[in-house]
């Protein structure tokens, strides 16, 4: 193998599918002696009705921190270094921006929501966006 996998990016959202993605990333990280960065991207439209409502934002931040902390504990139990990143904005765009940014990730491991192709056509899909715009390998876990 020419290129060593040393940094894996794992988008997390608290769903069972993102948990499966994390578990696959941990398996790959163990094999490759890689580190994992878990990213939680909060979809924040430019003119959100919830902007400025402190109680909603605090509850969301607590939930995000809990999801990332649980991921960090699972990675640590498996001997994997886990870093975390929280971003706001368009979810798919943020994942690609981080993956291709200065940290230079080698791979993205993302859970699929398993939407039917008809729903995906109308609603789009973060994993679909990531697959088609990423310049690095993407593993989609169902």
Supply the key terms:
alpha/beta; globular; five-stranded parallel β-sheet
Task: Note down, in words, how this protein is organized.
- Helix 1 links the parallel strand 1 (7-11) and strand 2 (35-42).
- The longest helix has 24 residues, at 54-77.
- The chain starts with 6 loop residues before the first strand and ends with a strand.
- The chain has a single domain, classed as HUPs (Rossmann fold, 3-Layer(aba) Sandwich).
- With 142 residues, the chain is of the alpha/beta class.
- It has helices spanning 16-32, 54-77, 91-99, 117-123, 126-133; strands spanning 7-11, 35-42, 82-88, 107-111, 138-141.
- The model has no long low-confidence stretch (mean pLDDT 87).
- The chain contains five helices and five strands.
- Helix 3 runs parallel beside helix 5 (126-133).
- The protein has a five-stranded parallel beta sheet, with helices on both faces.
């Amino acid at each position: 193998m020419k290129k060593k996998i040393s940094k894996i990016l794992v988008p997390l959202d608290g769903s069972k599918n993102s948990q499966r993605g994390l578990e696959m990333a941990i398996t790959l990280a163990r094999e490759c002696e890689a580190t994992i960065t878990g990213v939680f991207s909060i979809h924040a439209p430019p003119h959100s009705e919830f902007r400025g409502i402190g109680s909603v934002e605090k509850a969301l931040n607590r939930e995000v921190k809990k999801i990332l902390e649980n991921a960090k504990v699972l990675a640590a139990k498996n001997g994997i270094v886990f870093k975390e990143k929280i971003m706001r904005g368009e979810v798919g765009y943020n994942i690609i921006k981080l993956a291709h940014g200065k940290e230079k990730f080698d791979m993205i491991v993302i859970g699929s929501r398993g939407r039917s192709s008809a729903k995906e056509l109308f609603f789009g899909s973060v994993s679909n966006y990531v697959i088609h715009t990423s310049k690095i390998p993407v593993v989609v876990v169902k």
